[in-house]
Design brief:
By secondary structure, this protein is α/β, with parallel strands linked by helices. It contains 14 helices and 10 strands. Strand 4 and strand 5 form a beta hairpin. Helix 5 runs parallel beside helix 14. The longest helix has 23 residues. The protein is globular, with a radius of gyration of 19 Å.
Length: 313
């Protein structure tokens, strides 16, 4: 039977101060998630999510466990409130960091293990940015072949293929400056520097790949209850060995979000539930698969709307 629903989980840049507070205050299951996260990490990540300050929340080492905690809490709240009215997904996927939330939802990783992993991931990604300074830039509505030429000439790498007309490149700061100049010369009209601490999903992460591999080896993965669609290949991950390889690979390879959504849509997915802060993924999905329905679950109001008798789920 073809799947019709998928859950997708956001990555960095979806965070905002106050995220998760309404579900924490309303649902016991969400409170339990935040309490478990505080206990696991040894500091109040919940307070950072709810009250900030923003500059502390957005630090790579903090924002990664904060987003995973909030996404898992939103899923717990939706399940508590909606019960069987919330359809079980045929697939799960997460954008970059969001893949860890997907693995928790698939019961491949426990929440404490995922939080410890992303805390280390965030620390190592930040350190990689110090060892090999770099950044990232979104390139909007620019011909892919022309962008590839710019990358080859400047030395930057394509690090995210997010949707038709939205690609992200990563590289050393001087190389990104060269790429910016070349792209503008060739007609690129919208280039957006990203506020990140390194050139993520590129070979500039190589200095920490070996260490992160050792970190991953110290954790146990279980086969997912629901297939998780890979960031790297855009195809399902179905066993525990693949999970470890995926998380190491996506640290330094391009995130194939467009391919992931195209795969799920081809398998019959028509409805995507974006579970966690923000609406970034819903916007991308609409550009990839215009006929798809997207539903956001990040606030109590979202869950209440799905409980209405007229709700389409």
């Amino acid at each position: 039977m073809a799947a019709w629903a998928a859950y997708v989980f956001p990555g960095q840049a979806s965070q905002s101060v106050g995220m998760g507070l309404s579900v924490y205050e309303t649902f016991a299951s969400a409170r339990a998630v935040f309490d478990e996260a505080d206990s696991t990490l040894g500091f109040p990540i919940s307070q950072l999510c709810f009250d900030g300050p923003s500059d502390e929340l957005t630090k790579t080492v903090n924002v990664q466990p904060a987003l995973v905690t909030t996404s898992v809490a939103c899923l717990a709240a939706a399940r508590e409130s909606l019960g069987k009215k919330l359809p079980e997904p045929g697939f799960l996927a997460g954008h970059s960091l969001g893949e860890y939330s997907a693995l928790v939802a698939a019961e491949s990783l426990s929440l404490p293990d995922a939080l410890q992993l992303v805390r280390e991931r965030g620390r190592l990604m930040y350190e990689a940015g110090i060892k090999a300074p770099g950044s990232m830039m979104a390139v909007i509505a620019f011909d892919r072949a022309s962008l590839q030429e710019v990358c080859e000439e400047s030395g930057v790498e394509i690090s995210n293929i997010n949707a038709p007309g939205q690609v992200v490149v990563s590289g050393a700061v001087d190389k990104l400056e060269k790429a910016t100049a070349l792209a503008k010369e060739r007609g690129a009209r919208k280039l957006i520097p990203l506020n990140v601490s390194g050139a993520f999903h590129s070979t500039l992460m190589d200095p920490v790949v070996e260490e992160f591999g050792r970190v991953l080896d110290s954790f146990s993965f279980r086969p997912p209850r629901t297939p998780v669609v890979s960031n790297v290949t855009g195809l399902p991950l179905t066993d525990s060995d693949e999970m470890r390889e995926e998380l190491l690979s996506q640290l330094r390879h391009c995130i194939q979000w467009q391919a992931s959504i195209e795969y799920m849509t081809a398998q019959g997915v028509t409805t995507y539930y974006e579970i966690g802060p923000g609406t970034v993924l819903s916007g991308l999905i609409k550009r990839i698969s215009p006929e798809a329905q997207t539903i956001n679950i990040s606030e109590v109001e979202d869950i209440s709307a799905l409980n209405e008798p007229s709700s389409s789920i």
